[in-house]
Amino acid sequence: MSSKSYLEQPATHVRAPYRSALLTQPANFKKALKDAQADPIKTLLGVAQGIPSVFVTKLLASAKPDFIWIDVEHGIYDRSTLYDCIHAAQHHSEGKTLVIVRIPKHDEISLTTALDAGAAGIVIPHVETADEVRALRKVAYFGAYLPINHITFPVAY
Question: Is 58 within 8 Å of 92 (Cβ atoms)?
Answer without folding.
Answer: yes
